[in-house]
Design goal:
It is built from 4 helices and 9 strands. It has helices at 31-37, 86-97, 115-118, 170-183, and strands spanning 3-7, 21-26, 41-44, 59-65, 75-77, 82-84, 98-109, 150-158, 189-196.
């Protein structure tokens, strides 16, 4: 089955890979009933502290559009002073629910854009190299508990108008982005496509 999961879906889940079965996860109480009426399976979960509530190898693709910046890099657990790494744990969960070769499309405001810091709920500041902690034969993130492995299909700064076009039209996107870089307008999000290696 070709299943897609959108993290932080709200009331409008994204499906950038056009999979026939769309699922969503959000912390909101109001989304589940509305999405059910549209044929979308939505589950409520707080992914800062909870696992993705689906079984292993269930999804062909996952999207996290304007979502990762809301997941803390570390928190302290109760009175024990134990450090928990929610972003690392979430990347483990994404890897777990993706099928071998499954794709993650992540889009986040990225440094040095002021949008990275403007919203007070942005607690995870993404940069050009953040995805590398989860990629390669021995991902650097393993020292913090990451136990999966991804391959980067692409990772670059882009503009919001290009998000849905990027997986299918990288040359057009690259030309548009070059123009925006020269003009200094509109490049403020990092876009990754990672592939699950299992």
């Amino acid at each position: 089955m070709q299943n897609h999961l959108d993290l932080g879906c709200g009331t409008t889940p994204q499906n950038p890979y056009n999979k026939p079965n769309v699922y969503g996860i959000d912390i909101r109480d109001d989304a589940q009933k509305l999405l059910a009426s549209r044929g979308v399976v939505m589950r409520k979960a707080n992914l800062v502290i909870e696992p993705i509530p689906f079984e292993d190898n269930y999804f062909s693709s996952v999207s996290a559009i304007d979502f990762f910046e809301h997941i803390p890099r570390q928190i302290y657990a109760g009175n024990s002073n134990e450090i928990i790494y929610p972003f690392i744990n979430l990347m483990n969960e994404i890897w777990r629910v993706l099928k071998p070769g499954g794709r993650l499309l992540a889009v986040t405001p990225a440094y040095p854009s002021p949008l990275t810091f403007a919203d007070p709920t942005h607690v995870n500041h993404i940069t050009v190299g953040t995805h590398n902690y989860f990629c390669g034969e021995s991902p650097v993130g393993s020292i913090y508990g990451f136990n999966g492995r991804f391959q980067a299909n692409f990772a670059r700064m882009s503009a919001p108008s290009n998000f849905r076009k990027m997986p299918n039209n990288p040359w057009v996107t690259m030309i548009r982005d070059a123009g925006r870089r020269i003009s200094g307008k509109g490049i403020h999000h990092m876009v990754w496509e990672l592939e699950a290696i299992k």
